[in-house]
Hints:
Layout: H1 3-23, E1 38-49, E2 52-56, E3 60-65, E4 68-69, H2 78-95, E5 99-104, H3 110-113, E6 114-115, E7 118-125, E8 128-129, H4 130-136, E9 141-142
Amino acid sequence: MDGFRIYCLFVTGMCVVFCATLAGHSVSTEEPPPPVGLTLHAKVVNVVDGDTFDVEVTHRLRVRLICCRAPETRTRDDEEKQRGLAAAAHLSDLIHGEQVILYIPAGTDLGDSFSFVRVLAHAWHDEKSVAREMIRSGHATEEAQ
């Protein structure tokens, strides 16, 4: 993906984020809700593995969950691959086709938040942290920020 397309994606996303922030949201949950700031609602359209998925805003955007690490699905290690496929299946059961709230932490250098052409973000679904649900299920481990 060339730099101009990434820039257009970013600008489009920021417009959606700004509108979503103005609209606000209320969440009552055991998990703290995403803070006001860079948040947006998006539909999950594809699960890549246990800690990465694609959402549709106005364009497809790949999201890597912050704070959790799932086994890889693309590896030569058969044991890790099986655990990775199980993690991806669990994440798919949790969020595929669902609306999520994405949050890029305040103070994040947005240039640094994009790695491997994906955005690093927290995600909430059904008033729960997706990363925490993956960790609780045993399909991911906690990753320091």
